[in-house]
Structures are given as C-alpha cells and as structure tokens.
Amino acid sequence: MIKKCLFPAAGYGTRFLPATKATPKEMLPILTKPLIQYGIEEAVEAGIHTMAIVTGRGKRAIEDHFDRSYELEHQIKDTSKDPLLAEIRALIANCTFSYTRQVEMKGLGHAILTGETLIGEEPFAVLLADDLCSCGGDNVLQQMINIYEKYQCSIVAVEEVPKEQTDQYGIVVGNIIEGTDDTYRIVDMVEKPNPKDAPSNMAIIGRYILTPDIFDILRKTKPGRGKEIQITDALLEQAKQGKVIAYKFKGKRFDCGSVDGFVEATNYFYGKRKALK
Prior knowledge:
By secondary structure, the chain is an alpha/beta fold. The chain has one domain (4-157, 205-223, 252-276): Alpha-Beta Complex (Spore Coat Polysaccharide Biosynthesis Protein SpsA, Chain A), CATH 3.90.550.10. It contains 10 helices and 13 strands. Helix 5 packs across helix 8 (214-220). The N and C termini lie far apart (37 Å).
C-alpha cells in the first residue's frame, strides 16, 4: 500500500563541519556504505521501490551514488573488488529515483512539502537518513506499514528519551490503544519543548507514514519553532481529528546526526560484521 518513500536530504549537516562542507551528510559512511544507502535498503526491504529525494545545493554526490559509474566499473571488472558494488547495483536496478531541490531551508515540514511533486495523491513514507536503525525482525518502516494497514492514518515512530533531551525532538502525548502495548492515539504534540515543560519523554524519530492531506495542511502551516515550518505542527492538525498514531518501534536507533551517535553506530555495525566472520 505504501509505494513511495521520501528522503529529505537538503540540510547542511553543520554538526559535522568541516567534513560536510563539500560532502553531503547523507553520504557520510558507516563502515563502507553511506547513511542514505542504509535508508534506501530499509525502504526496499519494506517493499518500497520508488524513492523521492529532496536535495539542495552541493548534493550531487547523492545522485551520482545511485547511478552507474562506467569508468569505475570498467576499472575493477573481473577483479576481487567487483563484488563490492553488488548491493548498490541491485538498488539501482530495482528502484526508481527522482529528485527535487529545496531552494530554501525552511524546516522539515517545508522539505516534505517540497517533495509533493514527487509523491502525488497517495500515502507515503518519510525516512531521515540521520536516524539509522537496526532491528532483529521486520525493520522499522515495515513495522510501521503493518500499523498503517490496520489504522489507515498517519503514523510516527517514537521512542522514550531522557527527559533532558526533549528539546531535541518532537514530543508526543497519546492514549494507549486498547489491546496493544506499543501503539498510541496522539492527542498532543510539541516541537522541541524545554525539558521542564515537556508533556512526556516520547520522542518522534526519523520515520513517518503520512497521508496525502498532509500537503494541504503544510501549505497552511505557519512557521513555528526556529521560524521553520515544522512537520510536528502539521501533524497536530491531523491529531486533533484522531488521525495520527504513535508507534514504539522494536529495534535500536542511532542518531547519526551527532558525532557520538555516528561513532556508536560505526562501532555497533563493525561488531556485527566481525561476528559474522
């Protein structure tokens, strides 16, 4: 039912300067794969093969990564290095990639609205490559698609965070849905509240399933915190109608938008690789 995944990828990645001065933060590697490739692979595993990427100035490396490199392929053909391109070749062969540019950086809500021309009138996933997730079973997007199939409304992935970190996230308040222990009907949402004012410690992470009416809501949404158009504010309008579900996903998330999270993810995936040898 969810056929398209939107990747907002126009941000500057200022927390990783100077590394991100000329390199998109989405192209920073965890071991041998860039962050955005992990995201694309998660979408494919969830049955999605149409990728819509919102980029900006200086992001051409993303487009080049998901394209053939004839010179490189010719150079390593029939060598021991050739199999190293197998995964990216499979993605290129099995996915459709489309791109549009976010000309001004006006927040995540604005980035999602910019992607409307690539999505159209259908429900879609949103994946932020900064949030790298590892799951033992179904990946996070697949878990959320399963929830969407049941409730047919917008879904946000959430996890509990330390109270002192609530000013880094969109925070939700919800009522547990009877018969579940991980699914909530949202009644309120606040973007990056001061810890002393936070209504809960349930934080939205970089995974969403959105219904297409979100675009009309975003068009009417005024700039909020940081003078940006916040997706949290738009989702609150849907939540007032009982149309947003918060789902406590099963898995481990790494905030690769921070240096600490990036290093933690690198060590974690390196450990997994070593264990397989």
